[in-house]
Amino acid sequence: MLALTYVKENTFSLMEKPKPVLLDPTDAIVRVTLASICTSDLHIKHGSVPRAVPGITVGHEMVGVVESVGSGVTRVRPGDRVAVNVETFCGTCFFCRHGWVNNCTDPNGGWALGCRINGGQAEYVRVPFADQGLTPIPAEVTDRQALFAGDILATGFWAARIAEIGPEDTVLILGAGPTGLCTLLCVLLRRPAHVIICEKDPLRLRFVREHYPQVTAVPPESVRETVSRLSAHGGADRVLEVAGGEETFQLAWQCARPNAVVTVVALYDRPQTLPLPEMYGKNLTFQTGGVDGCDVAQILSLIAAGELDTTPLITHTYPLRDIMRAYELFEGRKDGVVKVAVDCTPEAAK
Ligand SMILES: [Zn+2]
Ligand SMILES: [Zn+2]
C-alpha cells in the first residue's frame, strides 16, 4: 500500500509498505478513505517533534472503514464507517477514567498515531485500543463532515468545554488557523454575548468575515480597543489562546478582565513568561494543555444535527498519490488554503 513516510528531518516520502496487520486483541485495521494534513505533521517534518520515530507513516486525522478487528474489540465491527481519534488511550487507567485521556499511562497512550506508531496518510492504518480510538460515524454524516472530529475539532470542542463559557460572556479567541476556526465553531455552540477573533493573516481574517459574519474579526493592532469596547467589565470574560505566536500569550492575559479564565490551547516553540507582578490582583485562572479527545461521539451527533459544520475549512482535495503536492500547498499556505483533504481510496492511490 502507499504510505507517506517520515524518512528523516525535512524528508517525507510516499512509498510502498506492507499493509498493517492486527498485533493486539484490542487493535483494529481501518481502510482509510479520507485523511488530512495537520500543522503537527509539519512539525514532525521540520524535526521539532523529538519523539517522532523515523520510518513511521505520518498522519493522525482520518476517517475510514473498519476492515478487521481483534478478539477484544466490542464497540466496532468490520464494515463500520469510523472517525479515528488522534489520541490513543486505554480507557481504564486513572487518567482515562477521569476523562483526562491525554494523560493515559499506557506506553502507547497520548499522541502515538503518525508520530510514534504508523499513522493514516496511507491506504490502511492499525488503530490500537480500537474501542476508544474509533467512533462510528452516523449514516447521515459524510466522510468530509467527519474528517476533523478526532483531532482539530476535538481540540476546539475540548477548549470551549473547559473554558466554561456563559451566555453573558465576551469571548476572545486568538488565532484563526484551522484549530482556531474549529475552536470558534465550538465557542459559537455555547452562544456567548460576543465573540471576537484576532488574527494577523489578512486572508484568514477575510475567511472568518465571509463565513461567520456574526463574529468580530480583528487584527492584533486593534484587538485591545475592540475587546474593551465590546466587553462590559474592562476585558474579555474568556480568552482562548490558539495562536501560539511570539506575543500572543501576553496578549491573552492582557485582554482578559479580572477573574477571567484564560485557556491556552496553543503549542509554543519557546517558553513563555508569566509576569506575576504585573498580573497581581487580576486573579486570573489559566487552563493549559493538550486535548482530551473523548467527546468525538458528541461532536459527530452535533454534526448530524446540523449544529457543527467544518466542511468550509476543506479548501482543497488531492488524491493520495499527489500528497506531496498537497504538502507543498499546505506548508506554503498557497492559494488561500485552510485545510487539505486527501482521498486515500484505492483509485486515488493508483
Ligand atoms: Zn493534528
Ligand atoms: Zn488510559
UniProtKB/TrEMBL annotation:
Spans traversing the lipid bilayer? none
Please state every residue range assigned to the domain named Alcohol dehydrogenase-like N-terminal: 25-138
Q: Which CDD domains match?
A: FDH_like
Does the keyword section mention Metal-binding? yes
Matches recorded under PROSITE patterns: ADH_ZINC
Which cofactor(s) are needed, names only?
A: Zn(2+)
- Family recorded in the similarity comment: Belongs to the zinc-containing alcohol dehydrogenase family.
Q: What is this protein called?
A: Alcohol dehydrogenase
